Amino acid sequence: MVTNTRFGIIGGGALGGLYGCLLAKAGYEVHFLLHSDVDHVRRHGWKVETPLGDFELADVLVHASAESMPPCDVTVVALKTTQNGILAELLPKPTSQGGRVLVLQNGLDIERDSAAVVGPERVLGGCCFLCSNKVGPGHVRHLDHGRILLGDYHPSGEQVSQHALAICDDLVHAGIDAKVVADLATARWKKLIWNIPFNGLSVALNASTDELMDNPESCALARSLMKEVHQAAAACGSVMSGRVIETTLEVTREMVPYDSSMRLDYLNHRPMEVEAIFGNPIRAAIERGCEMPRVQVLYRQLLFLNQQRLASRIAAQ
Amino acid sequence: MVTNTRFGIIGGGALGGLYGCLLAKAGYEVHFLLHSDVDHVRRHGWKVETPLGDFELADVLVHASAESMPPCDVTVVALKTTQNGILAELLPKPTSQGGRVLVLQNGLDIERDSAAVVGPERVLGGCCFLCSNKVGPGHVRHLDHGRILLGDYHPSGEQVSQHALAICDDLVHAGIDAKVVADLATARWKKLIWNIPFNGLSVALNASTDELMDNPESCALARSLMKEVHQAAAACGSVMSGRVIETTLEVTREMVPYDSSMRLDYLNHRPMEVEAIFGNPIRAAIERGCEMPRVQVLYRQLLFLNQQRLASRIAAQ
To answer: What number is the ipTM of this complex?
Structure first.
C-alpha cells in the first residue's frame, strides 16, 4: 500500500532521478531539488528508460532552491559526495519537521556530513548497486540492477529501526529492490571491495573493467588491493568471509563491459569521489592500526589526477 | 695516454652513440654494431652535440652484423634491456678472444644476461647518469651529466679488478666522467631510488618530473616508494644513509624539467624496461624476505600498460 510518506530528492542525477521517478510513478509525493535540469524538468517532466518498463513523468514537483521545499518525511541525499559541502545549506528546510535523511552515496562514512546537519540518529544510509546513466536533461537510462541495502547510520544495538523498515517498505512498493540490513558499515565495506580496485584502476590505467579482468597483471593487482580492503574491514569490525574476494572477481568477470562511476567522472572532467571511496576507508583503518599500503598508492595517484584535472580546468577558464 | 684498447659498441642509441663517439674521437679503435642507423652512419658518420664541444665523426667502423666485428678488448652493451634476448647471438663474436663486457644498462642485475654468454668474471657493469637523446639517424644530442660508475659484476672480495681500472682510465682519457666503484650493486640500488618512483610515476601518471615534484600527493608517493627501495636495498646488503632519500628529492626538485627514459619509451611506443627497473629489484628483495608492496602496485600497472601498448601495436599492424 502506498503510504503518505513525502519524499525529497536532493540531486537529479542518474540515481536520484531514477529512484525519485519510481517513487512518484507509484503515487508518492516526491519533491525534486534540481540544479541544471530544473527548467527542463519543470517544462517537460522526466523521461525514464528502465528494464522495469520505460515511462515518462509529467507535472513533477520541482524546486530550484531548498527554501521552497516543504518538510519531507524522507529526504534522499543523491548528490555526489564531492558536493557534500552544500548539505549544510540544503538539508535544514526539507528536514525541518523532524524527517529522516537517507544517504544514497558511495564510499565509507559518507553519512557523516548529513549527520552533522540533522544529528546521527535521524540518518540512514543506503548502499546502491545500480547501473544507470543520465543521458540528457531530465532523461535517465537505467541499464541494470538497482538494489538498495539500507540501514541506520547509528544503529542502537542489533535492532533495526522502525524508520528503516518503513522507508524500505515504501521503496519496495515503488518497485525498487530494497532491503534492510542491520549492519550498514559491513555492506559499505563489501561494496568497497569492488569499488576500490575497479574505480581506482579504471582511472589510473584508463581501462574498462573487462580490460582490467582480461589482463593477468591488473587482475592480480585488483586481487591484492581487495585483500587489503578485506583486512581493513575486519580491523574496523566488518568481518567478511574470505570467499568474498573470489566471488567479487567472478561477478566482475561476468559483467557486461562497464565503466566505473569514477572513470565516468574522470572522462567527463568531473571531480572524482576520492575521499569517500579511498580517503575515508584508509583513515578508518589507520585509526584501528591497519595500513593499506597498496590502496594508498592508488589513493595518492587519484588525488594527483584529480588535482591535475582541476588545474587544467581552471587554466582553461 | 690513449691505449690500443679496441672497443665494440653494441647499440647506437643516445648512450652507445655518445660514449662510442667520444672514445673514437679520442683516438680509440671503436666498432659500432648498429641496426636502423647502419647505412646512414656508414655514409655520413656521426653528429654529436655535447656540452663537451660539438663534433662530427667521419669514417666510422660500422657493422650491420656481429659476425663482421673483430675480437674486441671491451664490448660495451648499450642496448635497452628489453633487447637482452639477442645478446646470446651478438656477444660471442666480439668477445671471442677473451675480451671484457661492460654493461651500460639501467636496472638491477641486468648484467646476468651478458654473464650467461661470457661468464660472470668477464663482465663489468656501469651505472650511467646521462641526459642524452637520439634526435635523428646518426645524431646524438647530449644535454647534461654523463658520469659512469663502473665496477666488477662479480667482485672478488673488496678488491677492484685491474680490468675495471684499465677500462676506467680509457674512458677518462676520452673525456668521460668515469669512476670505479668497489660495490656496483649499491650504486645500482642508489640509482633505483630515483628510477623506481620517477620512471614509474611519470608513466603511470603521465607527468614530467617537475609536475610530480610540484604536487604534494605525488611527491609524498615518491617518498614512500623510495623508502621501500631503501629498505629492500639494505635487505640485499646495500645499506645506504637515510639521507639519500631527501637528497634525491632535493636534486630532483632542482632538475630541469626532464622526461624519464621510461616515459620517453612509453610516449614513443617502445617497450619499457619494467623487468630491469622493477621486476628484478622486487624479486631480489623477496628472496631476502623483504616485500615492497607500493613498488609492486606500480610494477603491475607498468606491466599492464606495456602489454596494452603491445596489443594495440599488434592490432595496428
So the answer is: 0.88
